């Protein structure tokens, strides 16, 4: 079974070769007893139990359930996020959900994951080894425990993954992709002829993304009320533009519009500064990631910019395409070698 998991700072996206899709917010909390759980008519998030080979199972609320019911909610903004314990819980939960309708997990799970471009060279080998050595039994939402182990592990640069989903590239010249995430924004420029080749000096990572929007909204709420806005409530506030407060409503729509425009300007100016005069000869700039939807002004700030369809899923689906291409190449090589002996 071939799968890809994009463990993002704000949400986890996972896809399988059979069309499965999973997405949940990147939050966990130690599971607690829900005294009123029996009265709930809807389920949110996931109750996850992870059982290592040695030791007792650990229970977590994951995603929406952590935000709504967790007492000690955790998320990470670390550069080496795979070293944070939340990473493995997110990864195993995503895999468990992809296989939730299977009576038995496939013997061999081939997985593709990603890293920001500027983290890639330093972290690629360590992340690959970490996932190869990761194995545990997992139960999601009351399912039976299933053993999760990985066979082939491909680590791919973000943005390069999303580029696999670009609708069309020019026959020659330069094309680019900008992947606006929660913490980071990756930008990638490629030559398209005679083969697609990344241009390293025009590609990199800037540490700005949707987090800037959310943190500034939280600060504005604190300025107006003196209180602290629950982090899990921020996506709702950003979407609606308003937040109830002690029987009144605080209107943050102007603030949110202003922050989105300013964040888009910063992203555009820093990417264009990295590209210098080359920006004028790039034939198309694709926008991917959740930030492509949040910061719509980028389309008018960058040359020949287009938002990819389903931009949030572009990296996960691109990682899967890269994995399948690699496995097919390895298979053809093995057949060729066998035929020659």
Short description:
The chain has 341 residues and is of the alpha+beta class. The chain is built from 10 helices and 18 strands. The relative contact order is 0.14.
How would you sum up this structure, described in words?
- The protein is α+β, with helices and mostly antiparallel strands.
- It has 2 domains: 156 residues, 2-Layer Sandwich (Nucleotidyltransferase, domain 5); 143 residues, ATPase, nucleotide binding domain (Nucleotidyltransferase, domain 5, 2-Layer Sandwich).
- 35% of the residues lie in helices and 26% in strands.
- The strands form 4 sheets. Strands 11, 12, 13, 14, 17 and 18 form a 6-stranded mixed β-sheet that branches. The chain has a 5-stranded mixed β-sheet with strand order 3-2-1-7-10, with helices on both faces.
- The longest helix is centred in the C-terminal third of the chain and has 27 residues.
- The chain is flat and about 60 Å long.
**How many domains, as an integer?**
2
What value does the average pLDDT take? 89
CATH class of the largest domain: Alpha Beta
What do we call the CATH topology of the largest domain? Answer: Nucleotidyltransferase, domain 5
Judging from the principal axes of the Cα atoms, what is the shape?
flat
Q: What is the tally of beta strands?
A: 18
Low-confidence stretches: 38-42
Largest sheet: 6 strands, mixed
Number of helices: 10
Find the CATH superfamily of the largest domain.
ATPase, nucleotide binding domain
Amino-to-carboxy terminus distance: 29 Å
Strand content: 25-35%
Radius of gyration: 21 Å
CATH architecture of the largest domain: 2-Layer Sandwich
- The helix fraction, in percent, is 25-40%
Element-by-element helix/strand order: EEEEEEHHEHEEEHEEEEHHEEHEHHEH
User: Which structural class do you get from the secondary structure elements?
Assistant: alpha+beta
């Amino acid at each position: 079974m071939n799968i890809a998991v994009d463990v993002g700072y704000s949400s986890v996206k996972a896809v399988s070769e059979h069309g499965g899709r999973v997405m949940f917010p990147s939050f966990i909390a130690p599971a607690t007893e829900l005294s009123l759980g029996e009265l709930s008519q809807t389920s949110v998030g996931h109750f996850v139990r992870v059982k290592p080979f040695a030791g007792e199972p650990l229970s977590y609320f994951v995603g929406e359930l952590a935000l709504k019911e967790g007492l000690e909610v955790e998320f990470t903004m670390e550069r080496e996020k795979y070293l944070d314990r939340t990473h493995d819980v997110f990864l195993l939960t995503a895999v468990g959900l992809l296989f939730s309708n299977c009576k038995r997990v496939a013997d061999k799970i081939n997985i593709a994951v990603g890293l920001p471009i500027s983290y890639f060279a330093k972290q690629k080998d360590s992340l690959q080894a970490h996932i190869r050595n990761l194995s545990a039994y997992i139960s999601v939402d009351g399912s039976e425990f299933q053993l999760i182990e990985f066979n082939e592990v491909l680590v791919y640069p973000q943005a390069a993954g999303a580029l696999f989903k670009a609708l069309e590239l020019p026959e020659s010249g330069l094309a680019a992709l900008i992947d606006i995430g929660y913490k980071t924004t990756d930008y990638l420029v490629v030559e398209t002829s005679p083969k697609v080749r990344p241009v390293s000096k025009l590609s990199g990572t800037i540490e700005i993304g949707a987090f800037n929007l959310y943190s500034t909204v939280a600060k504005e709420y604190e300025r107006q009320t003196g209180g602290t806005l629950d982090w899990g409530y921020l996506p709702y506030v950003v979407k609606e533009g308003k937040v109830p407060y002690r029987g009144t409503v605080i209107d943050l729509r102007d603030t949110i519009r202003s922050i989105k425009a300013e964040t888009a300007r910063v992203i555009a100016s820093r990417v264009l500064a990295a590209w210098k005069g080359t920006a004028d000869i790039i034939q198309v700039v694709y926008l991917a990631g959740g930030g492509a939807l949040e910061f719509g002004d980028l389309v008018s700030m960058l040359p020949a910019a287009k938002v990819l369809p389903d931009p949030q899923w572009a990296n996960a689906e691109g990682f899967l395409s890269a994995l399948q291409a690699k496995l097919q190449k390895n298979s053809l090589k093995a057949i060729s070698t066998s035929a020659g002996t």
